[in-house]
Amino acid sequence: MKVVIAGASTSGLFAAYLLAKAGVEVDVYERAAAIDPAVRTLIVTDKINEVLGFVPHEIILNEVKHIDLFSKSRASRMELDRPDLIIAREKLILMLARMAEEAGVQIRLKRRFQSFVSGQNGVAIHYKDLITGEDKSETADYLIGADGVYSAVAKAASYNGHLQTALLQARIKLPKDVSRETYQVWFDRERTKYFYWLIPESDDIAAVGLISDEPREGSESLKSFLAERDWKPLEYQASMVPMHKYEYSAKVKEISSRVFLVGDSTAQVKVTTVGGVVTGFRGVRSVVEAILEGRKVNAESRGLKRELDLHWLVRKVLDGFSDDDYDRLIDFIDGQLKQVLSTVTRDDLAMMYLKLVASQPRLVMMSAKGLLRGIG
Ligand SMILES: Cc1cc2nc3c(=O)[nH]c(=O)nc-3n(C[C@H](O)[C@H](O)[C@H](O)COP(=O)(O)OP(=O)(O)OC[C@H]3O[C@@H](n4cnc5c(N)ncnc54)[C@H](O)[C@@H]3O)c2cc1C
Protein backbone atom coordinates (compact mmCIF):
# COMPACT_ATOMS: atom_id res chain seq x y z
CA MET A 1 0.00 0.00 0.00
CA LYS A 2 1.24 3.53 -0.81
CA VAL A 3 0.12 6.76 0.88
CA VAL A 4 1.01 10.30 -0.24
CA ILE A 5 0.80 13.03 2.40
CA ALA A 6 0.77 16.73 1.44
CA GLY A 7 2.53 18.82 4.13
CA ALA A 8 5.61 18.03 6.24
CA SER A 9 4.65 19.72 9.49
CA THR A 10 3.34 18.35 12.79
CA SER A 11 0.21 16.54 11.49
CA GLY A 12 1.66 15.24 8.22
CA LEU A 13 4.89 13.94 9.72
CA PHE A 14 3.11 12.23 12.62
CA ALA A 15 0.76 10.48 10.14
CA ALA A 16 3.76 9.52 7.98
CA TYR A 17 5.63 8.05 10.96
CA LEU A 18 2.64 5.97 12.18
CA LEU A 19 1.90 4.59 8.70
CA ALA A 20 5.53 3.78 7.87
CA LYS A 21 5.96 2.06 11.24
CA ALA A 22 3.03 -0.16 10.27
CA GLY A 23 4.81 -1.14 7.01
CA VAL A 24 3.14 1.29 4.58
CA GLU A 25 5.12 3.01 1.78
CA VAL A 26 4.81 6.75 2.49
CA ASP A 27 5.85 9.81 0.46
CA VAL A 28 5.46 13.25 2.06
CA TYR A 29 5.28 16.19 -0.38
CA GLU A 30 6.45 19.50 1.07
CA ARG A 31 6.45 22.69 -0.98
CA ALA A 32 9.27 24.26 1.06
CA ALA A 33 12.92 23.73 0.10
CA ALA A 34 13.90 22.44 3.55
CA ILE A 35 12.43 21.27 6.83
CA ASP A 36 13.41 24.48 8.58
CA PRO A 37 10.39 25.51 10.67
CA ALA A 38 10.07 28.98 12.21
CA VAL A 39 10.45 29.22 15.98
CA ARG A 40 7.06 29.11 17.74
CA THR A 41 6.42 28.59 21.45
CA LEU A 42 3.41 26.36 22.11
CA ILE A 43 1.54 25.32 25.24
CA VAL A 44 -0.13 21.89 25.24
CA THR A 45 -1.71 19.67 27.86
CA ASP A 46 0.05 16.45 28.87
CA LYS A 47 -2.49 14.64 26.67
CA ILE A 48 0.23 15.03 24.01
CA ASN A 49 2.14 12.17 25.69
CA GLU A 50 -0.87 9.87 25.41
CA VAL A 51 -1.59 10.79 21.80
CA LEU A 52 2.04 10.50 20.68
CA GLY A 53 2.49 7.28 22.66
CA PHE A 54 5.65 8.53 24.40
CA VAL A 55 6.93 11.54 26.37
CA PRO A 56 8.75 13.87 23.92
CA HIS A 57 11.46 15.01 26.38
CA GLU A 58 13.67 16.64 23.70
CA ILE A 59 11.02 19.23 22.72
CA ILE A 60 9.84 20.26 26.21
CA LEU A 61 11.12 23.71 27.20
CA ASN A 62 9.25 24.05 30.47
CA GLU A 63 6.42 22.70 32.63
CA VAL A 64 3.72 24.96 34.02
CA LYS A 65 2.14 24.07 37.38
CA HIS A 66 -0.21 27.03 37.98
CA ILE A 67 -2.47 29.26 35.95
CA ASP A 68 -3.06 32.83 37.18
CA LEU A 69 -6.37 34.19 35.87
CA PHE A 70 -7.17 37.91 35.81
CA SER A 71 -10.44 39.64 34.97
CA LYS A 72 -11.26 43.37 35.36
CA SER A 73 -11.54 43.19 39.16
CA ARG A 74 -10.67 39.63 40.18
CA ALA A 75 -7.66 37.31 40.24
CA SER A 76 -7.34 33.63 40.99
CA ARG A 77 -4.63 30.97 40.95
CA MET A 78 -5.34 27.42 39.78
CA GLU A 79 -2.96 24.59 40.58
CA LEU A 80 -2.66 21.98 37.82
CA ASP A 81 -2.49 18.37 39.00
CA ARG A 82 -0.91 17.51 35.65
CA PRO A 83 1.39 20.31 34.49
CA ASP A 84 0.93 21.83 31.03
CA LEU A 85 3.95 21.53 28.75
CA ILE A 86 5.65 24.39 26.95
CA ILE A 87 7.12 23.00 23.75
CA ALA A 88 9.17 24.29 20.82
CA ARG A 89 7.20 23.66 17.61
CA GLU A 90 10.36 23.66 15.47
CA LYS A 91 11.89 20.92 17.65
CA LEU A 92 8.65 18.91 17.44
CA ILE A 93 8.70 19.07 13.62
CA LEU A 94 12.40 18.13 13.41
CA MET A 95 11.86 15.24 15.86
CA LEU A 96 8.89 13.89 13.85
CA ALA A 97 10.81 14.28 10.55
CA ARG A 98 13.69 12.24 11.98
CA MET A 99 11.34 9.55 13.33
CA ALA A 100 9.45 9.38 10.02
CA GLU A 101 12.66 9.06 7.97
CA GLU A 102 14.01 6.38 10.31
CA ALA A 103 10.75 4.46 9.77
CA GLY A 104 11.33 4.62 5.98
CA VAL A 105 9.32 7.72 4.92
CA GLN A 106 10.53 9.65 1.85
CA ILE A 107 10.21 13.41 2.41
CA ARG A 108 10.08 15.01 -1.03
CA LEU A 109 10.90 18.70 -0.79
CA LYS A 110 9.91 21.35 -3.34
CA ARG A 111 6.82 19.40 -4.40
CA ARG A 112 3.65 21.49 -4.30
CA PHE A 113 0.42 19.49 -4.27
CA GLN A 114 -2.05 20.90 -6.82
CA SER A 115 -5.03 18.58 -7.33
CA PHE A 116 -6.21 14.98 -7.27
CA VAL A 117 -8.58 12.62 -9.04
CA SER A 118 -9.97 9.92 -6.81
CA GLY A 119 -10.97 6.57 -8.36
CA GLN A 120 -12.15 3.24 -6.97
CA ASN A 121 -8.67 1.74 -6.82
CA GLY A 122 -6.53 4.73 -5.97
CA VAL A 123 -5.83 8.44 -6.26
CA ALA A 124 -3.98 10.29 -9.05
CA ILE A 125 -2.04 13.13 -7.44
CA HIS A 126 -1.00 16.14 -9.50
CA TYR A 127 1.83 18.31 -8.21
CA LYS A 128 4.31 20.92 -9.35
CA ASP A 129 7.96 19.95 -9.16
CA LEU A 130 9.38 23.26 -7.90
CA ILE A 131 12.93 22.24 -8.89
CA THR A 132 12.15 21.85 -12.62
CA GLY A 133 8.89 23.85 -12.75
CA GLU A 134 7.14 20.86 -14.38
CA ASP A 135 3.63 19.61 -13.59
CA LYS A 136 3.79 15.92 -12.69
CA SER A 137 1.50 13.11 -11.46
CA GLU A 138 1.81 10.08 -9.27
CA THR A 139 -0.65 7.46 -8.06
CA ALA A 140 -1.20 6.20 -4.54
CA ASP A 141 -3.77 4.17 -2.66
CA TYR A 142 -4.57 7.07 -0.33
CA LEU A 143 -3.91 10.82 -0.10
CA ILE A 144 -3.78 12.69 3.21
CA GLY A 145 -4.03 16.48 3.21
CA ALA A 146 -1.92 17.87 6.07
CA ASP A 147 -1.19 21.12 4.28
CA GLY A 148 -2.42 23.60 6.84
CA VAL A 149 -4.92 26.43 7.03
CA TYR A 150 -4.89 27.22 3.27
CA SER A 151 -5.07 23.50 2.36
CA ALA A 152 -4.88 22.86 -1.39
CA VAL A 153 -6.15 19.31 -0.76
CA ALA A 154 -9.26 20.66 0.96
CA LYS A 155 -9.78 23.15 -1.87
CA ALA A 156 -9.34 20.41 -4.49
CA ALA A 157 -12.16 18.58 -2.71
CA SER A 158 -14.40 21.66 -3.14
CA TYR A 159 -14.15 22.42 0.51
CA ASN A 160 -14.75 26.13 0.82
CA GLY A 161 -12.12 27.05 3.36
CA HIS A 162 -12.38 27.78 7.06
CA LEU A 163 -13.16 30.66 9.32
CA GLN A 164 -9.79 32.02 10.34
CA THR A 165 -8.40 34.04 13.16
CA ALA A 166 -5.01 35.64 13.71
CA LEU A 167 -2.65 34.42 16.41
CA LEU A 168 0.09 36.78 17.51
CA GLN A 169 2.83 36.26 20.05
CA ALA A 170 5.81 38.32 21.16
CA ARG A 171 8.79 36.78 22.92
CA ILE A 172 9.91 38.94 25.85
CA LYS A 173 12.31 38.69 28.78
CA LEU A 174 10.48 36.84 31.57
CA PRO A 175 9.28 39.58 33.97
CA LYS A 176 11.06 39.42 37.36
CA ASP A 177 7.80 38.99 39.29
CA VAL A 178 6.61 35.99 37.22
CA SER A 179 7.72 32.46 38.04
CA ARG A 180 8.60 30.09 35.19
CA GLU A 181 6.04 27.67 36.64
CA THR A 182 3.10 30.04 36.11
CA TYR A 183 1.02 30.60 32.99
CA GLN A 184 -0.96 33.88 33.09
CA VAL A 185 -4.29 34.70 31.39
CA TRP A 186 -6.07 38.09 31.25
CA PHE A 187 -9.72 38.56 30.27
CA ASP A 188 -10.41 42.13 29.19
CA ARG A 189 -13.64 42.34 27.25
CA GLU A 190 -13.10 45.89 26.03
CA ARG A 191 -9.90 44.91 24.23
CA THR A 192 -10.49 41.32 23.14
CA LYS A 193 -13.29 38.78 23.14
CA TYR A 194 -10.57 36.14 23.61
CA PHE A 195 -7.77 36.69 26.14
CA TYR A 196 -4.11 37.67 26.52
CA TRP A 197 -1.62 35.09 27.78
CA LEU A 198 1.92 34.87 29.07
CA ILE A 199 3.72 31.53 28.71
CA PRO A 200 7.13 31.23 30.39
CA GLU A 201 9.57 29.32 28.18
CA SER A 202 12.54 29.34 30.57
CA ASP A 203 14.03 31.38 33.44
CA ASP A 204 14.70 34.17 30.92
CA ILE A 205 12.07 34.15 28.17
CA ALA A 206 8.28 34.18 27.92
CA ALA A 207 5.77 34.42 25.05
CA VAL A 208 2.94 36.94 25.39
CA GLY A 209 0.09 36.55 22.95
CA LEU A 210 -3.36 37.36 21.77
CA ILE A 211 -5.98 35.86 19.46
CA SER A 212 -7.69 38.35 17.23
CA ASP A 213 -10.28 38.24 14.45
CA GLU A 214 -8.34 40.85 12.53
CA PRO A 215 -4.47 40.80 12.35
CA ARG A 216 -3.88 44.59 12.35
CA GLU A 217 -6.23 45.22 15.27
CA GLY A 218 -4.60 42.30 17.16
CA SER A 219 -1.11 43.64 16.52
CA GLU A 220 -2.03 47.08 17.91
CA SER A 221 -3.76 45.55 20.90
CA LEU A 222 -0.74 43.36 21.70
CA LYS A 223 1.67 46.28 21.31
CA SER A 224 -0.31 48.45 23.73
CA PHE A 225 -0.62 45.56 26.22
CA LEU A 226 3.19 45.15 26.16
CA ALA A 227 3.86 48.90 26.34
CA GLU A 228 1.61 49.34 29.41
CA ARG A 229 3.74 46.81 31.28
CA ASP A 230 7.03 48.04 29.81
CA TRP A 231 7.64 44.59 28.27
CA LYS A 232 9.92 44.87 25.23
CA PRO A 233 9.25 42.50 22.31
CA LEU A 234 12.37 40.52 21.25
CA GLU A 235 10.58 39.02 18.22
CA TYR A 236 7.05 38.40 16.98
CA GLN A 237 5.47 35.08 15.94
CA ALA A 238 2.23 35.28 13.96
CA SER A 239 0.06 33.29 11.62
CA MET A 240 -3.55 32.61 10.71
CA VAL A 241 -5.23 29.68 12.46
CA PRO A 242 -8.39 27.93 11.23
CA MET A 243 -11.41 27.87 13.53
CA HIS A 244 -13.43 24.69 13.88
CA LYS A 245 -17.08 25.31 13.18
CA TYR A 246 -20.06 23.19 14.20
CA GLU A 247 -21.13 22.79 10.55
CA TYR A 248 -17.79 21.25 9.61
CA SER A 249 -19.09 17.98 11.05
CA ALA A 250 -18.70 15.93 7.87
CA LYS A 251 -15.36 17.49 7.08
CA VAL A 252 -13.68 16.13 10.20
CA LYS A 253 -14.26 12.73 8.63
CA GLU A 254 -12.81 11.68 5.30
CA ILE A 255 -13.90 13.63 2.22
CA SER A 256 -13.69 10.70 -0.19
CA SER A 257 -12.98 7.07 0.57
CA ARG A 258 -9.36 7.59 -0.50
CA VAL A 259 -8.69 11.19 0.55
CA PHE A 260 -8.43 12.37 4.14
CA LEU A 261 -7.73 15.68 5.88
CA VAL A 262 -5.93 16.14 9.20
CA GLY A 263 -4.80 19.02 11.42
CA ASP A 264 -5.27 22.64 10.39
CA SER A 265 -6.31 21.56 6.87
CA THR A 266 -9.63 20.48 8.38
CA ALA A 267 -9.70 22.96 11.29
CA GLN A 268 -9.04 20.39 14.04
CA VAL A 269 -8.48 23.31 16.39
CA LYS A 270 -10.01 24.02 19.82
CA VAL A 271 -11.64 27.39 19.27
CA THR A 272 -11.58 28.29 22.97
CA THR A 273 -7.78 28.46 23.10
CA VAL A 274 -6.88 28.02 19.40
CA GLY A 275 -4.73 25.00 20.27
CA GLY A 276 -4.36 22.64 17.32
CA VAL A 277 -1.44 20.33 18.01
CA VAL A 278 -3.03 17.67 20.24
CA THR A 279 -6.37 17.72 18.41
CA GLY A 280 -4.51 17.47 15.07
CA PHE A 281 -2.65 14.41 16.38
CA ARG A 282 -5.95 12.86 17.50
CA GLY A 283 -7.28 13.43 13.98
CA VAL A 284 -4.13 11.79 12.57
CA ARG A 285 -4.57 8.70 14.75
CA SER A 286 -8.14 8.19 13.61
CA VAL A 287 -7.23 8.58 9.91
CA VAL A 288 -4.23 6.23 10.23
CA GLU A 289 -6.39 3.60 11.92
CA ALA A 290 -9.06 3.96 9.23
CA ILE A 291 -6.45 3.48 6.45
CA LEU A 292 -4.74 0.53 8.13
CA GLU A 293 -8.03 -1.21 8.88
CA GLY A 294 -9.69 -0.28 5.55
CA ARG A 295 -12.58 1.30 7.45
CA LYS A 296 -14.40 4.58 7.03
CA VAL A 297 -14.73 6.62 10.17
CA ASN A 298 -14.02 5.40 13.68
CA ALA A 299 -15.09 6.17 17.21
CA GLU A 300 -12.03 8.34 17.92
CA SER A 301 -12.97 10.64 15.06
CA ARG A 302 -16.52 11.00 16.41
CA GLY A 303 -15.11 11.66 19.90
CA LEU A 304 -12.81 14.35 18.50
CA LYS A 305 -15.70 15.94 16.62
CA ARG A 306 -17.78 16.04 19.83
CA GLU A 307 -14.88 17.63 21.69
CA LEU A 308 -14.31 20.27 18.97
CA ASP A 309 -18.04 21.03 18.83
CA LEU A 310 -18.11 21.52 22.59
CA HIS A 311 -15.21 23.99 22.38
CA TRP A 312 -17.21 25.79 19.66
CA LEU A 313 -20.22 25.99 22.01
CA VAL A 314 -18.12 27.25 24.93
CA ARG A 315 -16.59 29.86 22.57
CA LYS A 316 -20.10 31.04 21.68
CA VAL A 317 -20.91 31.34 25.40
CA LEU A 318 -17.70 33.28 26.08
CA ASP A 319 -18.32 35.58 23.09
CA GLY A 320 -21.41 36.79 24.99
CA PHE A 321 -19.58 37.37 28.30
CA SER A 322 -19.16 40.84 29.75
CA ASP A 323 -16.38 41.89 32.15
CA ASP A 324 -18.87 41.29 35.01
CA ASP A 325 -19.45 37.73 33.77
CA TYR A 326 -15.70 37.11 33.76
CA ASP A 327 -15.53 38.48 37.33
CA ARG A 328 -18.27 36.02 38.34
CA LEU A 329 -16.56 33.17 36.50
CA ILE A 330 -13.37 33.82 38.42
CA ASP A 331 -15.35 33.84 41.66
CA PHE A 332 -16.72 30.41 40.71
CA ILE A 333 -13.25 29.21 39.80
CA ASP A 334 -11.97 30.41 43.15
CA GLY A 335 -14.64 28.32 44.86
CA GLN A 336 -15.75 24.79 44.11
CA LEU A 337 -14.60 24.76 40.49
CA LYS A 338 -10.94 24.90 41.44
CA GLN A 339 -10.72 21.19 42.16
CA VAL A 340 -12.44 20.17 38.90
CA LEU A 341 -10.41 22.52 36.70
CA SER A 342 -7.10 21.44 38.19
CA THR A 343 -7.71 17.72 37.59
CA VAL A 344 -9.17 17.64 34.04
CA THR A 345 -7.25 18.91 31.00
CA ARG A 346 -8.56 21.26 28.27
CA ASP A 347 -8.26 18.31 25.87
CA ASP A 348 -11.04 16.52 27.78
CA LEU A 349 -13.53 19.38 27.77
CA ALA A 350 -16.61 17.13 27.47
CA MET A 351 -15.73 15.40 30.73
CA MET A 352 -14.73 18.70 32.34
CA TYR A 353 -18.03 20.36 31.43
CA LEU A 354 -20.14 17.60 33.02
CA LYS A 355 -18.09 17.79 36.21
CA LEU A 356 -18.31 21.60 36.27
CA VAL A 357 -22.08 21.63 35.91
CA ALA A 358 -22.47 18.94 38.57
CA SER A 359 -20.35 20.95 41.00
CA GLN A 360 -21.88 24.35 40.18
CA PRO A 361 -25.39 24.21 38.58
CA ARG A 362 -25.58 28.07 38.45
CA LEU A 363 -23.05 27.84 35.63
CA VAL A 364 -25.79 26.52 33.35
CA MET A 365 -27.82 29.73 33.70
CA MET A 366 -24.73 31.89 33.28
CA SER A 367 -23.70 29.90 30.16
CA ALA A 368 -27.19 30.17 28.70
CA LYS A 369 -27.14 33.96 29.11
CA GLY A 370 -23.68 34.18 27.54
CA LEU A 371 -24.78 31.94 24.68
CA LEU A 372 -27.82 34.09 23.91
CA ARG A 373 -25.65 37.20 23.81
CA GLY A 374 -22.87 35.36 21.88
CA ILE A 375 -25.14 34.31 19.03
CA GLY A 376 -27.34 37.38 19.22
C1 LIG B 1 1.67 31.97 16.83
C2 LIG B 1 0.95 30.65 17.01
C3 LIG B 1 0.88 30.07 18.27
C4 LIG B 1 0.21 28.85 18.45
N1 LIG B 1 0.14 28.33 19.71
C5 LIG B 1 -0.40 27.10 19.88
C6 LIG B 1 -0.36 26.51 21.17
O1 LIG B 1 0.12 27.11 22.15
N2 LIG B 1 -0.86 25.25 21.31
C7 LIG B 1 -1.39 24.55 20.25
O2 LIG B 1 -1.83 23.39 20.44
N3 LIG B 1 -1.48 25.12 19.02
C8 LIG B 1 -0.99 26.37 18.81
N4 LIG B 1 -1.03 26.93 17.58
C9 LIG B 1 -1.70 26.19 16.48
C10 LIG B 1 -0.78 25.08 15.93
O3 LIG B 1 0.52 25.62 15.68
C11 LIG B 1 -1.35 24.51 14.63
O4 LIG B 1 -2.70 24.08 14.88
C12 LIG B 1 -0.54 23.30 14.14
O5 LIG B 1 0.83 23.65 14.04
C13 LIG B 1 -1.05 22.85 12.77
O6 LIG B 1 -0.18 21.88 12.22
P1 LIG B 1 -0.46 21.25 10.79
O7 LIG B 1 0.65 20.24 10.58
O8 LIG B 1 -1.86 20.76 10.68
O9 LIG B 1 -0.33 22.45 9.75
P2 LIG B 1 0.92 23.41 9.43
O10 LIG B 1 1.87 23.47 10.57
O11 LIG B 1 0.35 24.70 8.92
O12 LIG B 1 1.68 22.68 8.22
C14 LIG B 1 1.26 22.66 6.89
C15 LIG B 1 2.45 22.19 6.02
O13 LIG B 1 1.99 21.98 4.69
C16 LIG B 1 2.89 22.61 3.78
N5 LIG B 1 2.09 22.92 2.57
C17 LIG B 1 1.12 23.86 2.45
N6 LIG B 1 0.57 23.81 1.21
C18 LIG B 1 1.21 22.79 0.55
C19 LIG B 1 1.07 22.23 -0.77
N7 LIG B 1 0.17 22.71 -1.65
N8 LIG B 1 1.88 21.20 -1.11
C20 LIG B 1 2.81 20.71 -0.23
N9 LIG B 1 3.00 21.21 1.01
C21 LIG B 1 2.19 22.23 1.39
C22 LIG B 1 3.41 23.82 4.53
O14 LIG B 1 4.62 24.30 3.98
C23 LIG B 1 3.57 23.23 5.94
O15 LIG B 1 4.81 22.56 6.07
C24 LIG B 1 -0.42 28.17 17.36
C25 LIG B 1 -0.35 28.76 16.07
C26 LIG B 1 0.29 30.00 15.92
C27 LIG B 1 0.31 30.59 14.55
Give a written overview of the molecule.
The chain folds into 3 domains: 169 residues, FAD/NAD(P)-binding domain; 103 residues, D-Amino Acid Oxidase, subunit A, domain 2 (D-Amino Acid Oxidase, Chain A, domain 2), CATH 3.30.9; 64 residues, no CATH class. Helix 7 runs antiparallel to helix 8. The mean pLDDT is 87. It has 12 helices and 16 strands. The termini are far apart. With 376 residues, the chain is an alpha/beta fold. It has an 8-stranded mixed beta sheet with strand order 3-5-4-12-13-14-11-15. Strands 6-2-1-10-16 form a 5-stranded parallel beta sheet. Bound molecules: flavin-adenine dinucleotide. Flavin-adenine dinucleotide binds next to helix 1, strand 2, strand 3, strand 7 and strand 11.
Sequence-ordered SSE layout with sheet pairings:
Layout: E1 2-6, H1 10-21, E2 25-30, E3 41-44, H2 47-52, E4 60-70, E5 75-88, H3 89-102, E6 106-109, E7 111-118, E8 123-129, E9 135-140, E10 142-145, H4 152-156, E11 163-173, E12 182-186, E13 196-200, E14 205-212, H5 215-229, E15 235-243, H6 249-252, E16 259-261, H7 277-293, H8 299-319, H9 323-334, H10 337-343, H11 349-359, H12 362-375
Parallel strand pairs: 1-2, 1-10, 2-6, 4-12, 10-16
Antiparallel strand pairs: 3-5, 4-5, 7-8, 8-9, 11-14, 11-15, 12-13, 13-14
Helix pairs in contact: 1-3, 1-7, 7-8, 8-12
This protein binds flavin-adenine dinucleotide.
Task: Please summarize what this structure is.
With 376 residues, the chain is α/β, with parallel strands linked by helices.
